[in-house]
Amino acid sequence: MNTHFLRWLVLLPAVCCLFACGSHAATDKGDAAAGKDTSTAAGVKDAAGAADATDSAGAGTPVTVTTVSNSALNDSIELNAVSAFLQKSYVKANANGYIQSADVYPGKYVETGQVLFTLKTKEAQSIGNTIRQLDSTLQFSGVNTIRAGQHGYITQLDHQSGDYVQDGEQLAVISDRNSFVFMLNLPYELRPALTGKKNVSLILPDGTRLAGSIGEIMPSVDSASQTQNIVIRVNTSAAIPENLIAKARILRTARPSAQSLPKSALLTDETESNFWVMKLIDSTTAVKVPVKKGIETSDRVEVLSPVFQPQDKILVTGNYGLPDTAKVKVGDNN
In a designed cystine with 175, which of 50, 85, 154, 273 is the match (CB 3.0 to 4.6 A)? Predict the structure, then answer.
């Protein structure tokens, strides 16, 4: 028994050493595996970050571009012009009496000397044929005729058949056709725009265009609107009503060949005192180019300086808010 006990005492340290070595080996193996997983995750993350950085560096603001155009460019202003008759004839009664007939109506065109009204005096209406019965040689009818003093349109009718009127009372108004004009309401500060101008284009509400010539300038201005009336004469046979509002287009500046860009290509600051465009210097970079603006139309603006080359590409959309040097991605203009 002593022999067995001594044998176990000798083997016990060896068994403990074996267990200790196995535990350290397992721990080292786990740590190695964990270190490998961590390194792999870090590598994947670094690769993804590098890919994102590459994509970010290659991306740009989507834009479209255009080129300069050299063509005729005109600057004009549009103002209201109202049709009117400068001269009017007032048809009046020539005696006290009753209107027997009235061959007129508003809008009718009458010639000079045409009979408009027949008027029976009050005395003839009261006496009737009594005088003729007393003396047949007397040709007293008491009927007066009232004729047109000039040719034109009946624009106002005040009395009809059967009305009693007094001597000198207004019966109708004739607007002289030859005095038909358009009255342009010109703001006084725009008078220099008419200096040296003789012709003006008129556009009626139905789209009809008329050529007009600038006539007299009225010697007064409206106290409220500070506009001055300018007479514009037109040569047309069409019947144009009075008080029709037309658009008068006055040419201020004409450029036979001007360097221009679409309005959307021009950028400015809050005070609209500085202007610039964004110009491509390569396929992905746009830079800020200060420009001097000239005349404008409804969709284009003249660029006085600098002079661009026909192949220069100017940003027309996507240009708002870009810095001086910006990365862009040019898309299809369509």
Answer: 85
Supply the range of the domain harboring residue 285. 61-74+255-330
Segments of the chain with pLDDT less than 70:
1-59, 125-141, 333-334
Q: Is residue 17 part of a domain?
A: no
Is the CB of residue 186 less than 8 Å from the CB of residue 225?
A: no
pTM beyond cutoff 0.70: no
202 belongs to a structural domain: yes
Q: What are 329's strand-pairing partners?
A: 62
Check if the beta carbon of residue 291 is closer than 8 Å to that of residue 259. no
Reading the block at residue 185, the tokens are 């309401």
Distance CA 276, CA 320 (A): 11
Structure confidence by residue, pLDDT tens digits, 232-258: 999 888 888 889 999 998 888 888 889
Do residues 246 and 234 lie in contact, with contact meaning Cβ atoms separated by under 8 Å? no
Which CATH number do you get for residue 67? 2.40.420.20
Quote the CA–CA distance of 181 and 230 in Å, as a whole number.
10
CA distances (Å), origin 200, targets 186, 205, 211, 227: 13, 16, 6, 18
Q: Is 257 within 8 Å of 244 (Cβ atoms)? A: no
For residue 306, whether the previous peptide bond is cis, meaning omega lies within 30 degrees of 0, is yes
Phi, psi of 205 (to 5 degrees): -60, -25
Residue 16 lies in a domain: no
What residues are paired with 100 via a beta bridge? Answer: none
What is the tally of structural domains in the chain?
A: 3
List, in sequence order, every residue forming a beta bridge with 62; answer none if it has no partner: 329
* DSSP helix/strand/coil, 114: coil
